[in-house]
Amino acid sequence: NGSVQVQTTPSYRVINAIAWSCCAFVKFSSFTNAYNTLICANGSSAGFRDFHVKSNGKLAPYIKTTGGIGSSAYDGTGANTLSTGVWYHLAFTYSINGGLVGYVNANVDGTGVIDGNAAALTGTPYITVGSNQPAFANRYINGTVFDARFYDRALSALEIRQIYREPWQLFAPRRIWVPVSAASGPPTLAAIAASNMTTSGA
């Protein structure tokens, strides 16, 4: 069990938020359980905001809501099927304006209904990364999680894409631009060195 759980207070604004977003990078080693919980925010008395990946590699985000249905979700009906050994950026958002939206690598995977606001988490609220304890046993993930985030609002599709791109920008090679004329052809390494530019990147 490599999961991480943080207990919070009911006044913690992410717990009481009427809208919600969570996201993380994850690489699964296996889909061991029927539901493998990436992120959950639950209350000991009521409320849940759970982000699962099923044993077949399909997303299953759930959130308790204040409307007549009582929750919004989609369970295994999204466009993507995840594979083991591959890094993905997974996200889901909920608001009274947009309903539930799930993302895989910044592309919409599936949607759930609009059903009022996100319900507050009551009792002793907690946020867990990597399992759904103590609400459910045997929902641990077998894999690696990086950069898990939680928000008290529904992120836009553009914001999701910006978060998805951040790690790749950190490690992207630095480019150099050297003027080239048709007459002289491409510059030599000696010419680049003479102009105080480097070919070794960052």
Alpha-carbon distance between the termini?
A: 38 Å
Structural class: mainly beta
Shape designation:
globular
Classify the beta-strand content into a percent band: 35-45%
Q: Uncertain segments of ≥5 residues (pLDDT<50)?
A: 174-178, 195-202
The total of helices stands at 3
Instruction: For the largest sheet, list the strands in their spatial order.
Output: 1-10-3-4-5-6
- Major beta-sheet overview: 6 strands, antiparallel
Structure description:
With 202 residues, the protein is mainly beta. The chain has helices at residues 13-16, 157-171, 189-194; strands at residues 4-7, 20-30, 35-42, 48-54, 59-64, 71-73, 87-95, 99-104, 107-112, 126-129, 142-151. The strands form two sheets. Strands 1-10-3-4-5-6 form a six-stranded antiparallel β-sheet, with no helix packed on it. Strand 3 (35-42) and strand 4 (48-54) form a beta hairpin. The longest helix has 15 residues, at 157-171. The chain is globular and about 40 Å long. Residues 174-178 and 195-202 have low confidence and may be disordered.
What descriptors fit this protein?
globular, 6-stranded antiparallel β-sheet, mainly beta, 5-stranded antiparallel β-sheet
Secondary structure layout plus pairing:
Elements: E1 4-7, H1 13-16, E2 20-30, E3 35-42, E4 48-54, E5 59-64, E6 71-73, E7 87-95, E8 99-104, E9 107-112, E10 126-129, E11 142-151, H2 157-171, H3 189-194
Antiparallel strand pairs: 1-10, 2-7, 2-11, 3-4, 3-10, 4-5, 5-6, 7-8, 8-9
